[in-house]
Design goal:
Length: 242
């Protein structure tokens, strides 16, 4: 599997794990499901883990780990030191790649004339590095990188940050509205706006995103934080060639 920052192959890891166990789609009575629900965490899938006594959980809050009875929770990064693989990140890659495809219709897209790569960026209007990345939009497009935006209000689903993103996504010209908002201009409220900003935010949380910009590649690899256009192009070229 192509990687930007991680080594190893997810498929091999998955096959190894499945040799000893099987992935389970949980039912409502599973103790893991009920105990995590009490914490406000929705368990979407229970997978085997390479660590004895732990299950890998795909949740609306990212990848977590738990004992089979749900009594013990482990939150953090699981790393295979022998193979230098970040297993938590590998699990999230497939979740991100699949999840993004479900929201393509609600993205704000700046398409490169000669597209060689595409990135999906979770963004917030008030984020300084999001604005810096957007100022390099023409450089990205000229380099053949299509930029697709999803919203991630850092302050959550309330306040001016959330309202501004709603206004942008409901604007008649979304591209212009986003560019103007990132330049510091005020957004215009749209009556009856029903943009899926909350869904974007929840999707980002399930990807393990906590800040912006968060750049997702087509294979689900995430680059957390700002990268200059030239560095991003070099990374994308290397990822494609690997």
């Amino acid at each position: 599997m192509k990687k930007l920052m991680l080594a190893g192959a997810m498929l091999c890891t998955s096959m190894s794990a499945l040799a000893n166990d099987v992935a389970v789609t949980p039912n409502a009575n599973d103790p893991i499901v009920t105990k995590f629900a009490a914490l406000g965490v929705t368990v979407k899938q229970i997978n085997p883990s390479p660590v004895a006594g732990l299950k890998e959980l795909i949740t609306n809050k990212g990848v977590l780990y738990a004992s089979p009875d749900g009594q013990f929770l482990m939150q953090g990064t699981l790393i295979d030191l022998d193979n230098r693989n970040n297993l938590t990140e590998q699990a999230l890659n497939s979740v991100r790649a699949e999840g993004i495809t479900e929201y393509e219709e609600s993205m704000i897209v700046y398409k490169a004339p000669n597209e060689k790569h595409s990135i999906t960026v979770f963004t917030d209007i008030s984020c300084g590095y999001c604005r810096k990345l957007h100022r390099e939009l023409n450089d990205l497009l000229d380099a053949g990188i299509t930029v697709k935006y999803l919203a991630f209000p850092r302050g959550g689903l309330q306040g001016s940050g959330y309202a501004d993103l709603m206004n942008v996504w409901c604007a008649k010209d979304q591209q212009e509205a986003l560019t103007e908002a990132k330049a510091g201009e005020s957004t215009t409220a749209v009556p009856g706006c029903s943009a899926p900003i909350a869904e974007h935010y929840q999707l980002g949380q399930s990807f393990g995103i906590s800040g912006t910009p968060a750049i997702i590649l087509d294979d689900g690899t995430m680059i957390p934080g700002y990268q200059p256009a030239a560095a991003l192009k070099a990374a994308l070229d290397a990822n494609k060639a690997s």
